[in-house]
Structures are given as C-alpha cells and as structure tokens.
C-alpha cells in the first residue's frame, strides 16, 4: 500500500448530528420490529407447547367413554360425526364393548371405586343396548 502524497488533503468523513439521530432512530425501529416479531411468534409456539385446553385429561373414564361412544355409533344409536345416516355394525360394536370389558379385567385392583362403578355401569348399558339392537335387526 502506498501512502497518500503529503500535498493532498486527507479525506475526512463529516458526521452531522442529523445523520446520527437518523441512524439511532433506524436502530430503535429495527429493535422494536424484532421485539414485535418475537412477541408474535411466542403465542404460536406457546400454543403448540401447551395441550389443547378443550381436551379432558387422559384417564380411564375418558378412554372407556371414547370406546363407548364408538360402540354406540357402531350400533347405530348415534350419528357419525360426518352427519351421515346411522348404520349398524354389530361386529364393530361388539369389539368396542369387549375392549372395555378387557380394560375392566386388566385394571382390576388398580381402579378407584368411582372408576369401578363407571366401567360396570357403562358395560351394563352397552350390553343392554347391544342386545336391543341385535333383537331389532333379527325382527326386522
């Protein structure tokens, strides 16, 4: 590198106060924009991290209730979520009832008294409904 000749004046950068204030304002605007972006992203990530508040906590009652709902749909006692005409599928209904009975058997000694009553009543109701639908189809 060569040194500039001594007879040429050295170039100076002139920084005025207006330029400084514009740079500072741009810097602050950029920081605000980044903070806003982070705030906008936080609720989305927080919502993804938290389970859906409308869902009940996992429990034996919820599991048995879900299986019972499927059994009732299969027996044609409830409309399918898509809104179609109820159809009877006794083999599917029996499978769901048998699954609840298996849960009752496998959880014996590990349930609360409330869970025991719920499973017992649920199975009784489903078995009675199954027999009624089966009889109706035989007559029908």
Describe the 3D structure.
The chain is 66% helix and 0% strand. The model has no long low-confidence stretch (mean pLDDT 81). The protein is built from 4 helices and no strands. 11% of the residues are buried. α2 packs antiparallel against α3 and α3 packs antiparallel against α4. It has 2 domains: 30 residues; 80 residues, no CATH class.
**Uncertain regions spanning at least 5 consecutive residues:** none
Number of strands: 0
How many H/I helical runs?
4
Q: Radius of gyration in whole Å, from Cα?
A: 35 Å
pLDDT averaged over residues:
81
Provide the helix percentage: 55-70%
Which class of secondary structure composition applies to the elements? mainly alpha
The general outline is elongated
- Structural domain tally: 2
End-to-end Cα distance, whole Å, is 104 Å
Order of helices and strands: HHHH
How much of the polypeptide forms β-strand, as a percent range? under 5%
Largest sheet: none
Quick rundown:
The protein is mostly helical and 140 residues long. It is 66% helix and 0% strand.
What tags apply to this protein structure?
140 residues; mainly alpha; 2 domains; 4 helices; elongated
Please render the helix and strand layout as text:
Elements: H1 17-49, H2 60-74, H3 90-106, H4 113-139
Helix pairs in contact: 2-3, 2-4, 3-4
């Amino acid at each position: 590198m060569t040194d500039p000749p001594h007879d040429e004046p050295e170039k100076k950068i002139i920084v005025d106060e207006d330029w400084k204030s514009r740079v500072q304002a741009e810097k602050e605007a950029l920081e605000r924009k980044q903070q806003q972006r982070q705030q906008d992203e936080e609720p989305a990530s927080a919502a993804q991290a938290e389970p859906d508040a409308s869902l009940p906590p996992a429990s034996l009652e919820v599991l048995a209730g879900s299986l019972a709902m499927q059994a009732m749909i299969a027996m044609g006692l409830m409309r399918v979520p898509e809104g179609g005409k109820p159809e009877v599928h006794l083999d599917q209904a029996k499978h769901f009832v048998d699954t609840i009975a298996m849960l009752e058997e496998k959880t014996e000694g590990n349930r609360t008294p409330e869970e025991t009553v719920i499973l017992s009543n649920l199975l009784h109701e489903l078995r009675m409904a199954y027999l009624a639908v089966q009889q109706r189809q035989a007559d029908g």
